[in-house]
Design brief:
4-stranded antiparallel β-sheet; 142 residues; 47% helix; 7 strands; 3-stranded antiparallel β-sheet; alpha+beta
Amino acid sequence: MNNPIISVQGSGKKLIMIGIAIIIFTVIITTVFSFGIEGSRNADELAMTTTIIDLLIKCVGIFIIVIGAKFSKTYISVFENYIQGEGLINFTRASFSLSYDKISSVSVNKDKLLINSNGVIYKIGVSSSDASRIAKYINNRI
């Protein structure tokens, strides 16, 4: 049986936590701000503006959570003659199985492993230490 040399499951935990923090922060700020505008001359206009801003920021938080969830479903397995896994291409999950001669470059961007093959960049959300270890191994092979 062909066992992987390195196998890592992706993680979007940081992004999910950031998204949740944004939503909680928005709820707190909106609640505090809403008490301050009750007696204002333009209370209705301020309430409408606050609601719109609140919804926009919450949408950003939700978007970040969705991206984090997608990164948590990525993975990579490194074998003697090829790599395989699932990464993100433009926020869409895509499976790959690439021999080392098909890989143009491998790089690390914080806690993401970026694998370039024929102009297609697969992004796998892994810890920075795992990303560095995998990138070093693959770069020695290509």
